[in-house]
Amino acid sequence: MRKSIEIFAILFLLYTACFSQINWNLDYDSANFAFLIVDYTTYNFEGGYFTKFPYYPGYDDESIPFTILYNPPADFGDILFTYSATNDTIFAGSIVWDGLGQITFPDTIDDASEFSYDSTQVADPFSVSYLNYVDAIEDSVFYLKADATWMSVNKLKILKEFGKEGNVFRIALYLYAPAEGFFSATSAKWIIFLYRGQPITDAVNETSISIKYQLFQNYPNPFNPTTKISYSVLEPNIIILKVYDILGNEVHTMINQFQPAGYYTVNFNAINLPSGNYIYKLQVGNDYMENRKMLLLR
To answer: How far apart are CA 214 and CA 204, in angstroms?
Structure first.
């Protein structure tokens, strides 16, 4: 009898190990989004959420195709991540001045107990975006902690579905600080966004591998009067970052210097500029040039 119980227990553990892994049903014909929640201080994985939308080409050529909307709190504010092609919500959280906000979308997440780990790490993502909007955290500290956060979860089995060879796999690391006016490490959470698009064609693959520099959308956008602009430099070069009005007149030079490889975030203050659309342009030596549009609303 005892031996039968032991055999049953072993079979149960084997069954649990094989079938406890959550199934998010990623679709090759869809834009697949997910996020993982990790405690800022302990790096404990707390759970995740998955959703998918119709795929629209052209939105995921450089980074995860989401739009970030930030409403700064007078007393209460929020941050919203939406799919750029459809404006569907992916993640939302409230932010409270001298208080404590919370995740407001989705209503529920899959608990960490529903996930299982593999013995090997997921393949390197196609791109990594670092989203640091907490002034109290220096960029150098942010990047180190963000990388450590990714290392703490990159053996989750579900990630293998995102990182399957031949698909666009991108991640973004965002630090959600639900309080404004002070930084509370005990309430802050890492939000690791995951994205898998359609299979990569040879042409797209060759183009993407050749990208050595990247300019990201400013945050917040719209803004008043300050915003942050981030870019990545995978090889050292002369970096020029300028802002122009909608007529093409230069209004500010933010960077004009040699920089080593790395991820950079600069603050832009438009206190003396009128409301309207502006263009910021990144130039890297003679190799690369990219511009994006931002909106100043007073």
So the answer is: 16
pTM: 0.67
Structural domain span for residue 218: 212-298
Residue 12 pLDDT > 50: no
Instruction: Quote the DSSP letter at residue 126.
Output: S
Phi (first) and psi of residue 5, to 5 degrees: -65, -40
Rounded CA-CA distance 74/72 in Å is: 7
Q: 233 and 120, same structural domain?
A: no
Short-list 191, 197, 152, CA closest to 172: 191
Asked if 70 and 195 sit in the same domain, the reply is yes
272-298: average pLDDT: 88
Check residue 195 and give its pLDDT: 96
Exposed / middle / buried, residue 79 (Cβ in 10 Å: 0-12, 13-18, 19+): buried
Token reading at 72? 């700064």
Of the residues 185, 210, 235, the one at which a domain ends: 210
**Based on the domain organization, do 109 and 180 belong to the same domain?**
yes
CATH of the domain at 254: 2.60.40.1930
